[in-house]
Amino acid sequence: VLKDALHRLAIQMATQYLNHRRDTDPVANPLGNLSRQRQLAEELKKISKCDEAESILRQNMSESDKHPELAGTLEMADSVFLLAELLREREALDESFSLHISVLSDRERILGEAHEDVARSLKVVGDIYVSQKKFGDALDVFVRALKIQEHVLAPMDPELAETLIKLAGVHQKQAELAIAENLLMRALSLLKDVYGEDSEPTAAVLNEIAVVTEKQGRYTEAAEQHTAVLLLWEQTAAF
């Protein structure tokens, strides 16, 4: 309840500020206005006001007609990324995919190919490929994302584990179980170091490893892993 109240307060303050800017100087700093409108849309999305958020984000896209200097900026790319994610949650995958490809292109051009935001865009594109059952394409972009993250992120960054898990999921779908297991073991080692052995993220990955182990016919080992997962879940639920 408190969290929702804070979001609503943030929305009210942002709306009042934007209205004041529009009334007093409607053409001032279009780049700043674009960024503030995106922030407002983010707050609306957090409290499930997705229609209002989508309307604001689509208005942001149309601003480049009035202010051509906004087209191709990082601020516009961030706004379009948020719209694309909102559409993905609503399962409007074709439009979401098209927008994400556009954002990826802009981020690569502005930030360079080896940037963590480029990797994040690649991972989202990969998720959409998976939903479309285009596993080869998904594998390609997840591998690209992982290479970027290994270069720019700290060795213990949890985002690395997330990408490893996504890669493992694609290999599982292609029945490449040994590769999937190795990737999951890397993710497990990283998450143990970050969160500890008795943590929910560790338990979740160990559960995936148990599933892959069982699929490979190593039933005794899988049973031991499933038992360890249950113990971990019981321990984490106690806190």
Task: Describe, in plain words, how this protein is organized in 3D.
With 239 residues, the chain is an all-alpha fold. Helix content is 82%, strand content 0%. α1 (2-24) packs antiparallel against α2. It is elongated and about 65 Å long. The model has no long low-confidence stretch (mean pLDDT 89).
In short:
The chain is an all-alpha fold. Helix content is 82%, strand content 0%.
Highlighted features:
239 residues, mainly alpha, 82% helix, elongated
Intertermini distance: 22 Å
Order of helices and strands: HHHHHHHHHHH
Biggest sheet architecture? none
**How confident overall, as mean pLDDT?**
89
Please count the helical segments: 11
Helix content: over 70%
Kindly provide the radius of gyration, computed on alpha-carbon positions and rounded to a whole number of angstroms. 21 Å
List the helices and strands and how they pair.
Layout: H1 2-24, H2 30-46, H3 50-66, H4 74-89, H5 93-111, H6 116-131, H7 135-152, H8 158-173, H9 177-195, H10 200-215, H11 219-237
